[in-house]
Amino acid sequence: MFVSKYEKEFSQYYEFRSSILSDSARMHELCYLKRFDKYIADNIQTDENVLSESFMCRWISTLQGESISIANEVIVIRQFLKYLNLRGYNTFIPVVPKVQDDYSPYIFSDEELELIFASADNTIVKDKKACIYLPIVFPVILRLLFCCGLRIGETVRIKMKDADLENGVLRLVNTKGDKHRLVPMSEKMTDILSKYCLAMGLIGNGEAWLFPGNDKKDHISDRSIKRRLPSEKTRRAITYALNQKASLMRVLDDPRLELTNNAAERAIRPVTVGRKNWLFCDSEKGAHAAAVLYSILNTAKMNGLKVYDYLNWVFERIRRCDFDNIEELAPWSELIPENVRL
To answer: At 338, is the pLDDT very low, low, confident or very high (cuts 50, 70, 90)?
Structure first.
């Protein structure tokens, strides 16, 4: 598990810490310890047991993320360094970096929230390996996160015995900071949760997970829920759709407008299919001429003309045409004979 010269000390320290930490805190601490262990292995090649001030400053400078996350990681490693000092090693204990308020929350509008909940209520699972209960579980978890301010990790670990549906209270055990909390629910949220438990057959089974996984022996995973939550890209997509609502609704007002750009895609397909051929245009002017020609051909199609007959008609008249009246030969010209039209 650990690979540096302090492998034995890391293992002993982690074993001690594991006995007093909750599962979530233990996993976080293990992650920080393994990262620091790898950094030591990559940067200390000698047998000298010294973690100097300069070494620790270089390590801190490599940490990335929000300032609060960096501070938390340094706090965990400080505790390990203190443990090394008690074991007789000469190590430098760094100062915890100052935490800056660098978090910018995004506040969803009422319209965005409605779209998010509507999407959750219509969850479709295409992955065969995904939890079979996800379409039922996810809408309820999302509402708990929104209504009660819960974290995902503590929500999926709730058991039926911790849900007091009669009084509308949830009991959270071993949450962040190894704390226990009582979380009240609104009447509407309590009613939603009660109906959910009844539908899932959880009533009366205190040891059952409130949000079970496939075999019901374990809870649904945090990752399954996080993957369904709105990401930054989803938020941007929702915001864009709402900002463009007036333009998007125009398709309902005018039957000539199409909902998609499929017609344009079909029109450029011949050009795309022949793309390799265009690499052999002898000059920039030749490429420009080809582009003009294809534009005329597709415009003729859009105006309901027989392209071959239209070109014959144009070539017969273009030599006698006055360029001031060149538009008379355009695909939309009223002078085009009926036998050229579809």
So the answer is: very high
